[in-house]
Amino acid sequence: MQQTKSDTRYTKHKKIIPFVPEGDFYFVRGVKAFQKRKFDSAIKWLKLAVEKNPKEPVYRCQLSVVYTEIGSYHEANQLLTDVLTNSIDEYVDCYYLLANNYAHLGLMDDAQKYAKLYLDKDSDGDFSEEAKNLLDLISDEQENNEETEWNLEDEDELLIYQETAFYYVESRQWEKALAILEELLTLFPDHIQGRHEYAMALFFTGHKEKAIQMEKDNLASDENSLYSHANLALFYYLDGKRAYEQHIRTLLNVYPMHDQQKLMIACTLARTGFAQEARERFAALNKGIAGNQLSYFRWYSYALHETGDDQKAYDIWEQGKTKHPILHAEPKPWGE
């Protein structure tokens, strides 16, 4: 076969032509990882696909599906909204995907709006049956809610406050968390979780005595409150008071069923000098659920480092940064 000019040049200089994957290469890898339910890998590959070709909406849509699968509904919705806002062609499926995510968040008015939008734009689309079933479900819930004290507007408002407060608490933006939680408790004064998060926000904005007294009062009315024991253990420990020990003893003897309580105890143990015990609690968690929270990666990696497993600590921290980009702005929890 006749050798071309380019072949001769390549042979003469032995140049190595670097392989630069296009977005489709990363996209295919991401889809395969997703099909195998390797969600962390799927997110990594699909993010690379988006970075390689940010104008390709299909990449963002698929990444949103992975986020939905792991329960990161806000991240999923952000991607879908971006596709609808910035793409020349309208990707109608985004409307159904948004509806599905809002339904999972309990924001039924939004779920209903986007499900109707989807059917208006493509009544025979791939998700038409799912959209109709979702609307039927919402209709049934609305009828049931008419017979209860709470209505959809109240529930939606509460969920918005909860999600916003949770984000600020997890990202340690305490002043913003405090403001949101004050509004939440004004509207919903009996919201138990809100009271405990409010106490924590008080403590980390310098109102330590008020935070401690609030949790002592909570404990007086409910001596089995794990959140009060956890908050008081942390508050006293950070304040240098040995009173934290009695609350830690309570937590060490409790193995709750609820995932959020399991994670809360693990984080508290890690932050109060019980790294080995914390490590064991973290290892027993359902990563698919706990991994949606910054605190899981922040304090699990810390507990691993404190117990001498530096490589795994680093690996967990890197996983956290991949899943929660906000962690890129934080130093490693063990202070190096």
Automatic annotation (TrEMBL):
The keyword Coiled coil applies. InterPro entries: TPR-like_helical_dom_sf, TPR_rpt. Residues 131-158 form a coiled coil. The keyword Coiled coil applies. Keywords: Coiled coil. This is Tetratricopeptide repeat protein.
